[in-house]
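Follow-up to my earlier ticket, as requested here are the two runs.
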Amino acid sequence: MKASNEIWKERLTGQLPPDLAEEIDTFETEINLRREGKVDEKIFAETRLRRGVYGQRYDNGQRHDGVESRQLAFDVEKQTKGPNTVWDAPGMMRIKIPYGGINPEQLEVLAELAEEYSDSIAHITTRQDFQLHFVHIDNTPVLMRRLAAVGITTREACGNSVRNVTGCPFAGVCPDEAFDVTPYANALTQFLLGHPDAQNFGRKFKPTFSGCAEHSCGLTAMHDLGLTATTREVDGKTERGFKVYVGGGLGTVPRQAKLFDDFMSPAEILPVAQAMARVFGKHGEKKTRSRARLKFLIESWGLEKFKEEVLAERAKLREDPQWTEFLANVDGCEESPLHPPGEIPAVNGDQRLAHWIQTNVRQQRQEGYVTATVSLPLGDLTADQLRSLADIARRFTKGTIRTTVEQNFVIRWVSKADVVDLYHALDAVGLSEPGASNIMDIVACPGTDTCKLGISSSRGLAGELRKRLAEKSFQLDEAIQNLHIKISGCFNSCGQHHVADIGFYGVSRTVQGFKVPHFQVVLGGQWEENAGSYGLPIVAIPSKRIPDALERITQHFMDNREPDERFTNYVQRIGKGPIRQFLEELTEDLPSHEKDSDFYSDWADPRQYGIGDIGKGECAGEVVTHYQFEMSGAERMIFGAQILLDDGNAEEAGKQAYDAMIRAAKAIVQIQYDDVTSDPDEVIEEFKERFFDTELFYDPYAGPKFANYLFAAYENADRTHDAESAHHLIEESQLFVEAVHSCYNRLRSEGVEAN
């Protein structure tokens, strides 16, 4: 590996920007120093994360989607016996692709790297990035150099930094956009990359650009900084500007972004972004990571104070020519076609081709041209497919390709006359999947395949749902086809389950002494209007019954929807109560392990999911029964709070969500001290002494976050709730309940549940 690094370093000398070459050399030195024990692990962890290098979960060479992984140059036996470290096992390399813009040459380099250093598979993320998995850390410098030689960086792809600036993949060709946001997204990317004012964050900072308000391509409502293009007429002239939103984010408890400025001049977006970075760096939380995002600073201060601080900081900034230099050429980088415009040829009865054209081909605002979406199941494609896609892009366009937040590619500037030939070219290399941006186009995070936080197999479930939907895709009603499904392997919403029509996130439950993978069903989210609303979980269902749950939900929608009613409106009109009622049947009459052991494993993973310590004797049986009774009651109260919120009673919804947290805390306390009353003061005191101070409730990855939700709710028990605060508390209450379940399962398996 070192020899390879030296060969490529010598070969690429002089081809990299000097500052980037120096940075990669420095990182290579830091790797060696850390290996020698001369750099603290915490410092090195942030160093590698800021350069896109993650540790990853590794399960003995088998990805949970059933794809055999190459065993790279590391000690597999050592890895399976000990903790996962970046030295003993391969990790993940995240590669920034600003606003998704990429060209054929870059695709070919990615193909080479996937083949030589990874498992020959490249993965597109929901931030339009690429990820390569199973990459050894010793190889990361050579990857960085080879990427830099074609204009790609991994810098600040991870860590407490400004993450990839995302943008609408249809920018410049969308009929509905105000104007092309591409040059503005590119300018912000280059300006903030490595900027000294953006290096002191407690957590990440995510920006995005959207060309319009009605679609979902930019998702401005769920970003720290979201900019939506808009125009206005002044003295008979059209002026460009941006609606600026701040403080959005998904994660465990999502927040919708708030309007910071109704019309910001393009000349101000870079200095204001710089000022926001300075304010976030100075005043954002540093100690408690769960409160360290910008959304919590804005929530604490209020939008008006935040705006005052940002504008005051903006006034102090020294003038920087970069703020406006790019504006002179915003219309000078427009793309152009390779072939003349035309019309789509007849499909001659080819049903699959017709379906692909219907779902994957989108009219451009330029007459005679379309954008074609290459749907990628689970966001994956092979090295050979990357090379083929590069060839196809050159054949039909001038290399105008972008990645999307739905983990796909779009090929822009395709002449309508070439659509049929393009389809056949894609079909020949396995890239002609229909169903872009509809129910078949399921988004899933890596989940238990490679993520250390994964609880349930999001990719495995996505694969199963796709398979079942494909069997009847041509028969699905258009209202069903247009639904969006998004799956996360845990509560962190990397799969964006909060903004799906139907979302799922992984949780765990104990059934008859065995751990069983489950998914919470999330309803009420809205993908359109840039992630216009966030859903809430209504019931946890065993993973193996989620396909049945989806079928029940979609069938009920079809049977009860009003003409032209969208799914979001249907959920609001019907109410979550009736939906939960027919889904709860799937949580009953669960098979025993002896009768159906497959029920106790996850999708695409034949291994048993996990066994809890069943416990023997009447005492243990009574404790389990009482615990389950209390926890079931807490979950019913959380759902009741949702119903109250939907009915407009935010005050009672907030109170009931708080009461549910107290009841769940009491449930876990009672396994050690069964004389605890329901008095909140006593419950909190006992919980703190027995579970928080002893770190029995400490999550290995989230730390004390979920316990802090409880303490914060207790300290603010007398607050008055509005719809937003009640929504947040319901979400936090559900997450606290899930943490109680996890703690209980862990204690049972360790045999330390009672005094």
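Run two:
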Amino acid sequence: MIYKLITPILWTSILLILSYFNYGLTSKISMELVGNFHPLLVHLPIGIFILGFGLELFSRWKKQKIPNYIQEFILLSTILCTFLSMLSGWLLGQGGGYEREALELHRNMGIGFGIGTLVLYALFKKGGPGLQKIYLPMYSGLLIVLSVTGHYGGNMTHGEGFLFGESTSEITSVVVSDLQKALVYEDLVAPILEAKCVSCHKETKTKGGLLMTSKESLVKGGEHGSVFPTEQNSKGTLLERIHLDMQDKLHMPPKSKTQLSSTEIDLLDWWISNGHCFDCQVDSLPKDEKTIKMLSAFEKNESLLETLALEFEPIPQQWISEVAAYGMSAYPIAAKSPLMIVNVKGKKDLNKSDFKLLKKYAPQIVELNLSYSNMNDTLAVFLSDFEHLIKIQMSFTKITDQSLEPLTELKYLSSLNAFSTDLTQEALEKISPIKNLKKAYLSNTQIPVEALKDFNDRQEKILLEYVAEETFAQTSLDPPKIVSETDFFKKELEISLAYIFEDANLYYTLDGSIPDTLSTRYTKPFTIRASSSVRAITHKKGWGMSEVASADFRKSALDYKEVHLLAQPNEKYAAQGGKSLVDLKRGSTNFVDGMWLGFEGIHSGAEITLRKPEVIHSVSVGALSAPASWIFFPTAIEVYASTNGTDYKLIAKKSFEPIAPTNDISKKFFDLKIPDTQTQHLKVVVKSPLKNPDWHPNPGGKSWLFIDEIILD
């Protein structure tokens, strides 16, 4: 059997060698072509050999012998692939570009492994009981030889310490403390070349004959001359190769290596276009506005936030999603930052469990917004867990002076907002010891304005921001509450508006437009008989206008026979399948309430069959937005009609503007008017953004589409 295996290998090698020496078939190009298969072929014996070793251990653990034909196949396959790897590696090495000593060490280790595998096969076939005892130890030893061989090979292609040690191809952060006095080459350019280029252009591997480890070697260049601009080359080979398309085989660095960032490329462009001097400082070279912005990226940021960020790892998305499920939102202060902002604004059921969840990553939370929540003195004891808190907002809550006690332990706290709370003058004494507190907003509390003024006059460390009571009155109106029995109706629905002060005037609209004092004034409950988007405000003479209250109501008088989803939802957010879209039970802003259908990175929608043909005027799709959990509103809706339930024709389409950067959780209906169409079969396609927008902390990541209720009218 081994004769049948080795014979074609020998004939192949003889033909290759003869053609190389006598017939010229393996010219430099063809030799490189065969040699380039080495990175592919070299992985085959590694995987097969490790599989065989694993089977040997597994068989001894289970006390069941491996069939001889399986053992023989593994060993012979390893021998065959090792020989092909050695042959392709020899041809690759003939092309040069590798340090001779390192190349010979790697090659000899590979040959040793090949010979050892042949000996191992001989032990398997002919070894007696005594020799069989050394079979597994020899297997183990060859595995070590294989690992070391791979290590030396990795050193040549990926840099020193590829497998065992620190890799030189890792991305490095190039920053300097005093940017203007920094040497352009030594402090900025050289570290970038070391991180992104030197692994292929050093003493142990001079690809293209080019060394990039010193000033002299850069000027000397490689096979194609200097890397800097010449009379024949306006940019120089370095910039030309860097700016080539990634798919171009001459692109530098190769697409398999860590690429230069756009900022690093801009730096090299600027340095080379200004004479590529090796001793000049940053402040000595001309700079435009774009260059100044580019250079600022290399300046060391020693701010508190940057210092803290170095201490932590990024927070898992799973925790962020869990926080969102509890009615809170958490998001990084900047893209890829491990420091978080947590928004609990408006949460009226805040409790100990919520703080227990936040405590897991409390040291990484630097901003906390508790405004309009049920925050109180009992819950305030948990604030001391947020040791790195820089900013906290507790306006419009039930806190008293007692709630400020835990804040005295927060040595980084610089901003406190306790606007419209029950704080008294004693609060001023409690906040005074907070070491880094710079600003506090204490308007509309029980603290007299005179006391606030006196506090600012007495000390300069903390600035109290406040407004006179008469000014506050013009900003304190709350929006009315829109009251109804349900969000859906078949014929008509009664709606009322409520407000705590009877002398305030309420105004509303039904078409989704923003109301003002010229809109319809509310005097008594009103009835709607068509789908409506109610918007309402509060107004009082001499006071400011309130924010807008919103509520959507949809008429649904049609009977559904069947609903089939166009795509399968994620199993965690499957609700009741297609039936969930027409059950007239709307999901809340808590996307894990079991009412929403969630789709990750795909479009969705449904095919809807009515019990009888109906004239359709409009389609409304309910959707959710929770950017902190990667959930975004749809980008478009398409509606198709069919006479037979098989052949559909597009009858209407509408696109929607993407939301502005926000982390608020909201839900809304997306309405699409369609030409009056009588049909029994409709297909509603809901388009997902598919990816997170550029402003998102994880730009380009797969986004989610959450929908609930498709209303036909």
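The only thing I checked on run two: The chain has five domains: 2-158, 184-296, 307-468, 481-552, 556-712. Let me know what else you need.
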